[in-house]
Structures are given as structure tokens and as C-alpha cells.
Amino acid sequence: MVGGGTKRRRRRLQLSKLYTLTCAQACFKQDHSQIGGPGFSRVVYCNEPDSPEADSRNYSDNYVRTTKYTLATFLPKSLFEQFRRVANFYFLVTGVLAFTPLAPYTASSAIVPLLFVIGATMVKEGVEDWRRQKQDNEVNNRKVKVHRGDGSFDAKEWKTLSIGDIVKVEKNEFFPADLVLLSSSYEDAICYVETMNLDGETNLKVKQGLEVTSSLRDEFNFKGFEAFVKCEDPNANLYSFVGTMELKGAKYPLSPQQLLLRDSKLRNTDFIFGAVIFTGHDTKVIQNSTDPPSKRSMIEKKMDKIIYLMFFMVITMAFIGSVIFGVTTRDDLKDGVMKRWYLRPDSSSIFFDPKRAPVAAIYHFLTAVMLYSYFIPISLYVSIEIVKVLQSIFINQDIHMYYEEADKPARARTSNLNEELGQVDTILSDKTGTLTCNSMEFIKCSVAGTAYGRGVTEVEMAMGRRKGGPLVFQSDENDIDMEYSKEAITEESTVKGFNFRDERIMNGNWVTETHADVIQKFFRLLAVCHTVIPEVDEDTEKISYEAESPDEAAFVIAARELGFEFFNRTQTTISVRELDLVSGKRVERLYKVLNVLEFNSTRKRMSVIVQEEDGKLLLLCKGADNVMFERLSKNGREFEEETRDHVNEYADAGLRTLILAYRELDEKEYKVFNERISEAKSSVSADRESLIEEVTEKIEKDLILLGATAVEDKLQNGVPDCIDKLAQAGIKIWVLTGDKMETAINIGFACSLLRQDMKQIIINLETPEIQSLEKTGEKDVIAKASKENVLSQIINGKTQLKYSGGNAFALIIDGKSLAYALDDDIKHIFLELAVSCASVICCRSSPKQKALVTRLVKSGNGKTTLAIGDGANDVGMLQEADIGVGISGVEGMQAVMSSDIAIAQFRYLERLLLVHGHWCYRRISTMICYFFYKNITFGFTLFLYETYTTFSSTPAYNDWFLSLYNVFFSSLPVIALGVFDQDVSARYCLKFPLLYQEGVQNVLFSWRRILGWMFNGFYSAMALAISYFTLIQHIVIWSSIVVWYFFITVYGELPSRISTGAYKVFVEALAPSLSYWLITLFVVVATLMPYFIYSALQMSFFPMYHGMIQWLRYEGQCNDPEYCDIVRQRSIRPTTVGFTARLEAKKRSVRISEPAS
């Protein structure tokens, strides 16, 4: 076994050389001259973290904190959070004044409720932050092997790492800090890194250590190892790094090629050794994040304005009362006659002294402000906190948002933003790991003009469900309709990356097809044209593939499953097992790899030149349709028309397509090409890339078309359905991704954010003018020209929209252009263009750009924004948005730890917003309105009593009646409403997404509605405000009435020194009186009648969305398509994305084409 392992290791070491040429060797550049100057002052003593020189630097440790508070800051910061709420600050002031003789009640009755409210809220905040602390500890306590100094490595926690430590990271582990790569399991010190957590890309990046350290491949090699690194200071730029390493008296340049970033993952490499350069909050990924913000919902902010209004009312009433009191007091003692003898104005020092009436009026004003404080509900905030916590528990316990496969429920990590979930106007989503599963599946192909493959995409399944029928696929050959269900297809699909079903070419049946020779060349190209490395399991002899991208792996797997098995690779050869058309037997063929012309975003294609066993030279090429069709020869276009049609169909089904073509080369032509490509690659001039491109252009032409592949960038289950429902709800969806533009566009089609008839406004800097300028190296000129170019494209886009005639547009912009679009003088024009488009996709976006775009949308339109992502690169975006939703996927917990709510799958966003969001918004809005209504009703009785007592500041009620009214007597029914009330059930919330627009338009918490509740504060509408009675609501409503009578009875029986004015009032005065009970009944009926009348008129003539749905449900018409469409047409925002919009667009195109035919 040892010998076998050594043999396998040597084989892999040799194979790594296949990639060595793709790694740019570091050389000293102009930037390296800045080292030691401002911004480039970092000094690292490798393998000497405890040296005095290293200690004197005081670099940050590797502990990362995402909590809002620390032990030291919890008390002051939490108190600040509580008292920045206007009501709490007001009650603090009145609580302090309660200790003075001015108070109309005892100090304890004012302070105790305030302490209870503040204390309960602080406890809740503390518990939520403690949960964040636990998740921080989970990351900080991860283990990594660290050099002890004697040639051995021990496991240590991430948080204990120091600058200069040498660490050993093994396959599939995350890097614990920013490291300089020293060596790896490959002899040339390369390694493969997955940076999905940073830039969203799933394809692997190749990194390579310096040649001078590449021999350090064993642990004992580091005994006595010393190196000295000088580099740039911590910064947020993920794609740059400048430094030097001094080793054995010589200096070596360091570049991004040697930098391994925290939270990226080691893949396809057994281990690496690295030196810690940046730790903790100095790492680039954390530099891209921001401090956890203190988020407040829009309703809570508006509630502060209502408090200001109420405070103005209190001041007004106190002022009116104090003026009347002053005048009355001045005239209280005339000619020795005391009008209000019971106030003893003759012996009063100030309060009722007729000789000092103005001062008495001022004191009365302060007393009245304290007395009328009951207009403002002290228990409002704590009641809302209680309701939000209980709402969060319901979210956490929702079985429909539980992901059984990963055992992950939804988690509301903060309850402050529940109602915001019902008001989201724009969703900004990451792509990789959020919309997709990070896996590709080969699902269809077109060969020789014939379409093969009956696999079903998520988009097709969603469209089939929308149509209400089974999915039907038609065979081109025998024209037989075949039905496939999702379950049947899923059951058959057992090979990861392969979801292809077609009996015509599977199991070797392709040899009977008309164009069997073309099919053979097609799948042979898939088996040969790639850079994949095969690995054979010695126990099972099964072959697995390690690829730079999931696309590559899917192609090779598809070729294997269809009879062309790639099984071995050396530096210069590829071995394939395939079926021989002549002999009909399975044979092994060896292809000599002469050149690999790699894929990049400019070329949009990849080619290999191989030599067959008989000496024939072939160029095999695959690439995007827009660059491949133009390279076909006149004789190679036999199947072009059919292939184009199939490619368009595949794109409409949300699939990623590549065109496959080939050509034969003669030896003379190849010899000339090989000489020129070698010269170009050896060039050290600035236009080296252009020279290489020029040479490859001449060889990659006159191709013969074979066909096209279609792979599905596997969306998470239910993503198209979810996006369609969110679009119907009037929510705009933006995609912010680090991926290439082509990939993002393909996902846009897969998600139905884009469709074929939607016009695209593409903003990039891939113009000839900018590219030629970039070669000059004059940065200022390039920046100025680029900015002008981007501005021009944005203005042109707005012009297109202006004269579009109502057509849907999509805006697609890359990261380089986005950097200029976000400049202060352009960003608002860019935002105007973006919000006018149906879809917005930002490609190659850095984490910082994601956060800036989110900030622009949030501040620019003033509506609620929600950001959703799963990686560390999404943290800034999640924190910047009004609501941050983290996907608790497989790629670390950084996004979840920085989020407000965590869900396991994107599809759960549908239920989170349309059901829980709508309910929470409605409940909180109604609850707040009712709180102010009941306090106005209660407080106004105090004012009326004041008018009866000539504003003498005598309270109408006992101190504890006043204090407990809000905190105890009247809170439970409102809390029950806030937790349990439903206008419509979850099923109808999902069936009629337009109901969500009530929250987007904020119709339930508009000033009109708020003032309506206030002005109608003279009657009780509690029972009518509830749409959905439960047993709990019945209990709290009726029990609150019982508790009031119980309290007033028991409290009145206490000695008079305790119960004061309440002594036996109910038992001896009220209960025996028939008039008391008659008046109580009359008041209830009289105050309810106006609300009954108003509700009946509104429901009959001016129903809101939920009212219309309640009528449909009541009349049993919820399943009638005609009635449902009538309701949906009431939407304020037309549905322009999603498969529903796609179907409507198809219907329109059919209607337009019918007259023409």
C-alpha cells in the first residue's frame, strides 16, 4: 500500500506540471519599489512569531467577532439603544421628575414600569447577542496544524494564530488567515483554491509558491526555517498583493499568485504549508465587511414620529390646561372669598397661590406633562419586543422552512426586523450557493442537427406546473409524445453531473443513428478537450474527476456515461476507452496532447490540438455560440440552422450552451503555428497576450460544426417557482455575483429573470477604444476614458428605455464598469436606469461593490431592501441591507453569522416574505395603531376629568390604576393580536402574492390610517380589529376584563392607606348600581357601531387586497381562474420576470404572429 501511495503521489506531482505554465511567475514590478513606504509597511518574521521584533509590531490577533456588544460595551451601548427611542427617553425624564413634589403620582409607580420595560428589552438583546457569540466561537475554535518550532506540527485553534506562524492546511479545509503559500503536496508548489466564499466563483484558482520554498514538502523541513516578509498593509482589495520575501540573503517578489485568503478552501491538493501574513480583522475578507449595524425597521422609525405627534398633543393639552389653571388661580381669592376653598389657596406656598399665579401655571404645566404621559404607551416597546420574539419563534418552528436533508430550520437571529419582511421592495441576491447548488448537470445536446435528451430543467418543471399539466417532450424521430414526471426523472438520475435521458444514443445505441460518425466525434471531443485530472479508486476501481470548473467535470462524465471514458492522463497524453465503429468492440485510444489553448472571458472558447494514433492532427474546439459560428468553414455549416434553433430553445429553458467543432490540420500548418505560439509565449513585451491571441485566431478557424451541449447550472430546488411568486408580489430582484458575465446571464435565463424576448442593456468596458488605451499604461487617462464610456452607456440605456414602448429591459453590468457607475456623480443616474429595468445583474462584483450597490438602492429609493447570500463575500451586502438573509449552506458560516435571518434554501424566501412577512407587518401595524388608540381613549379621560376639576392636576385614577393600565390591564389582548391574528391563511398568501403589496405600499401603517385610529379613539374597536380568533385570543380578551374587575375588587378591599381613592369603590359604589351596568353596555354598543358601519362600507365598495381574497374565500371562488385573474390584475406593478411573465410573453408573441399567418 505504501508503494502504491507513493506511486500515486508521484503521478499527481507530474500531472501538476500541466498547470505550471498557467501560473504567472513572480517578477519585480514597479509596485515593489513602494515596499517600506506608506501603505506598504507590514513586516513579518516567518516561523518566529514570538520574537521581540514581531511582538513590538502589535498586529491584531486572529479572533473574529460579529457580535453587536462585548461585556464592556453591553451596558452603555444597550442603554443607548433603549433611550434613543423617543418614548423611553420621555419616560426617563418623567421618571426623574416623579421624585419631585411636582409629581401627581408616587415615584415608584412611574419608575417600576420603566425599569421593567427597559430590563426586559435589554435581556432580549443580550440573549440574541449571546447566540451570535456562540456562532463566533464555532469559527474561532476551528483547528489547524501549526509549527511548534522543532519540525513538528500540532493542532491549534484559529483564534490563537499569530503573524508569522507556519501552518499546514489539508485538503478541503478552509484557510484560517491570509497566508503566503510556501509549498504544497505538488513538487512545483501549486495548489488549487476554491474562492466561492470570496467572489462567488466555483471554478478552482491555481496558486503557486515561490520556487525557492517549493522543496519544503515535509514537516521536518521547517525546523530552523527563517524568512523575512515585507508587504502591503491590510486592505480590502482581494485581487492585489505586493510584497517581498527575504530568504538566505536573497529577495524574491510576492504577488497575488502566492496569497491564500482566509475563508477560501483548499481543493484537489493534499496539503499546503503557508506563513500567516494577515490575521483576524486585518484579513482581506474581513476588511471587506463592516461592523454589525444597529438596524431599525421603517415602522419603528415611523413610530418615533407618532410619538413626537403624541408628545406635541401632550404639550398642547398641558399648555391649554396650565393657562386656564393660571387664570383660575389668579381669581381664586377675591375680596377674601375662596372659590376653590378645598385647595386651600390661602395657605398654599406656590401651587395654588393666587398671588403667584404665573409661577403656579408653570408648575402646573410640568405636572400636567407628567400626568398626560399616559397618552404615550410605556408598554408599547416591550409589548412589541414580546410579540416579535414570539413571531420569531413561529418562524423558527415553521416546518415548511425546515431543510430535512441538512437538518437546518429557519433561524430568526434578530427579531427587530420581523415587520420589514412584509415590506421588501427589492431583493439583492448572490448567485453561487444562493440560487444555485454549485453543481452542473449535462442534460441535453444537439448533434448533427438532431436534439437529444429528455432531462427536465427546473425552469421547464416550473412552467409545466404553471400550465397545470404534465411535462410533454416530443421525439424528433418518431413524433411520439412522452410524459415525464419530476419524480421519475429524479429516481433515474443517479450519477452526479449527469441528468441525460435518451434511449436513442444511450447504451451504445448511437451507432444505429444516421450520423453515427458525427456523434462519435462529438463525444470524443468532450472526452479529450479539457484539463480534467482522473483519479482511480484502488479499492473500487471507479474513476472520479477533479476539474477546474463544474462544467468541465459534467462534460467528461457525460462522455463516460455515453461510452467514451476518459481514464488516464500524463503530461502529454490522454487515454480514452471508446466503441470502435468498424469492429464494434470497446478499444483504448491514446491521444497525444500537443497544445492547450485555454478558455478566458475574452476568447470565450477553449481548444486542444491532439495527434491520433495514426498521426492525424486535430484541433478540437468548444466555446460560446457568438464566437464559434463565425469560425465555421463554408463546408462546416451543414447543421448550423438546426443547431442555432436548438441553442435558442436550450437558452430559453435556462441552460448553458457550448458549441463543439473541429478541424484537421496538416503538419506544415501545425509546425508554423507551434513556432509562432512558442515565440508569443516567450515574449516579455507588454503586448504578450495580444500576440498569443493573434496566433490562436489564425488556427481556430475553418471549423466543422458537430453540435452543441446544454448543461444546467443546477438551481436549488424551487428557485424558479420562488422567483416567479416574488415577482408577482411586486418585488424586484437584482443578482450581484462575482461570476463571469456569461455565467450570470445563463443563470438569469435559468431563473427566468431573463428571457429571449427581453432586451438587454449590457454595460462593460470591453470596447476596442478602452482596450487599446489599457495597453498604454497611463492610468489617469484610462480611468477618465472608462468613466466617460460608462456614463455614455448608461445615458444610451435610459434613451432606449424612454422609447421602448413598454417592453421589458434587463440591465447587465460588469465589476469594472460598476466601479465607475458607483462614483458620486454617476450613481444616481445609474440607479434611475436600474430601477426602470425589470432585472438587474451585476457581474464580477467585489464584496465591497455588493455592499455599495445595496447601499445605493436602499438610500436611493427609500424602500426596504433585502440582501441574501451564503458566503463571506456577501457579509458587507447583508449588513448594509435593511434585512440580511444568510443561506446556511455548506460553505462556512460567515454569512449566517452576519445575517438577521438564516434559511437553508433560497426557496424558503417565498414563505418567509409572503406568509410570515405579510402576517408580521399586518400584526405589528395593527397592534401599534391599537396601542395609540387605547392610550388616547384612556388619556383623554384624564383630560376630561381635569376640565371638571378646573385643571388642578388631580388624577382621575389611583396611582397603580394608572401604572398598570398599559403594563398589565390592556396589553395582553393586543399582544395576542400581534402574535396570532391572520387576515388570510398561509395558503391564500401564497396563492395570491399581490396581497404582499399591502406591505410594499405600506397601506396598513399610512398616516391616514394612523390618524384614523387616533381620531376614533373614543370608541373601542378591539374585537373588530381581529380577523382571526383563536382560543388564546378569546382567553386573553375576556380574561383581561375579568382581571380588571378582580383587581379593582381585591385592591379596593385593602386598607385605605394603601388603596387610597380606590377603597371599596367597586363593591360599595359601582357594583350595586344598575345605572353603572347600563351605561357600560351603552358605551360598548355606541362605540362599536361606527366601526361596524365603516368596515361594512369599505369591504363592500373599497376592499383592500386582503378583503378581496376574503370575499373569494367566503364565496368559494378561490379556484375559479377567471375570478383569480381579476384579483391579480389589481397589482400596482406588472410582473415582468419569472416564468409567469415568460408564458405571458409567449402568448403575446403568438397573438401577434397569428394575424401575420
Task: Describe the model.
This protein is an alpha+beta fold. 44% of the residues lie in helices and 17% in strands. The chain contains 42 helices and 37 strands. The chain has a nine-stranded mixed sheet, sandwiched between helices. Strands 19-18-30-29-28-27-26-25-24 form a nine-stranded antiparallel sheet, sandwiched between helices. Strand 25 and strand 26 form a beta hairpin. The N and C termini lie far apart (73 Å). The N terminus is likely disordered. It is a multi-pass membrane protein. One of its GO terms (biological process) is phospholipid translocation. Involved in transport of phospholipids.
Count of runs of 4 or more consecutive helical residues:
42
Largest sheet: 9 strands, mixed
What is the terminal separation in angstroms?
A: 73 Å
Mean pLDDT reading: 79
Regions with pLDDT < 50 over 5+ consecutive residues?
Answer: 1-15, 17-27, 468-492, 1018-1027
Number of strands: 37
Shape: elongated
Gyration radius (Cα, Å) is: 36 Å
What structural class do helix, strand and pairing data support?
A: alpha+beta
| Spatial ordering of strands, largest sheet | 16-37-36-35-17-31-34-33-32
**Approximately what portion of the residues adopt beta-strand conformation?**
15-25%
Helix content: 40-55%
Keywords: ATP-binding, Magnesium, Membrane, Metal-binding, Nucleotide-binding, Translocase, Transmembrane, Transmembrane helix
Domain P-type ATPase N-terminal: 44-108
Main location: membrane
Catalytic activity: ATP + H2O + phospholipidSide 1 = ADP + phosphate + phospholipidSide 2
